[in-house]
UniProtKB/TrEMBL annotation:
Residue ranges of domain Chemotaxis methyl-accepting receptor HlyB-like 4HB MCP in the record: 4-128
Keywords: Membrane, Transmembrane, Transmembrane helix
The keyword Transmembrane helix belongs to this UniProt entry's keyword annotation: yes
Taxonomic source organism: Phaeocystidibacter marisrubri
Keyword Transmembrane among UniProt keywords: yes
Transmembrane segments: 6-25, 170-192
Highest taxon listed in the record's lineage: Bacteria
Protein name stated in the entry: Chemotaxis methyl-accepting receptor HlyB-like 4HB MCP domain-containing protein
Length: 195
């Protein structure tokens, strides 16, 4: 009789440990899910907004050159350079992938080359807009690549989130089955003792 009770206690203890274990796994998966969602916002959505702001700045600067609008040109360029540096600094504070770092460096280098060419264009009166427009196009291609990286990284984070959710659902189902098993087991023990 005593051995029988020990077996029952041992069986209930095993079920309890399984439920405890799945709960700990769920906790880890929820933490992973939370981190993934935060990463999508902190590193991807913010970076996408910064790319948009950089592109907008570049478009406005390009219009100055194309329209030959030299009114307060030096002041406008100084403001542009300051804003661009601020945006780059914000962008670097996000969690950059290796490829993203390379593309960002390409954007910065292309923008620096463009600034030198534009300065010659304005100060020396050289009117080779094709070269300048070509430089802007190069920067825009790098910006497009940065945008593509944002989409790819967001999709990656979404897959991580989905995997965590699938795992949570799986272990939740196991917990439900174990609880049903415990309920049936308790009923059997109670009814068995009654007889």
């Amino acid at each position: 009789m005593m051995i029988e009770k020990i077996k029952w206690v041992f069986a209930v203890l095993i079920v309890f440990l399984v439920i405890l274990g799945t709960n700990l796994i769920d906790r880890r998966n929820f933490k992973q899910l939370k981190n993934s969602v935060e990463n999508i916002y902190d590193d991807r959505m913010v970076a996408s907004n910064l790319i948009y702001r950089m592109t907008s700045l570049l478009r406005n600067r390009e219009l100055l050159i194309v329209r030959s609008d030299t009114t307060h040109y030096d002041e406008r360029v100084r403001v542009f350079e300051d804003k661009f540096k601020d945006i780059i600094s914000e962008y670097r504070s996000t969690n950059l992938t290796d490829f993203e770092q390379i593309e960002l460096s390409r954007v910065i280098e292309a923008k620096n080359q463009l600034s030198r060419i534009e300065e010659q264009h304005v100060q020396l009166g050289q009117h080779n807009l094709d070269v300048i427009v070509g430089r802007y196009d190069r920067i825009y291609r790098h910006m497009d690549e940065l945008s593509t990286i944002q989409m790819e990284e967001s999709a990656k984070q979404k897959r991580i989130s989905q995997k965590a959710m699938d795992s949570v659902e799986f272990f939740t189902n196991i917990e439900i089955y174990m609880l049903v098993f415990l309920g049936v087991l308790a009923q059997v023990i109670i009814l068995y003792r009654s007889k």
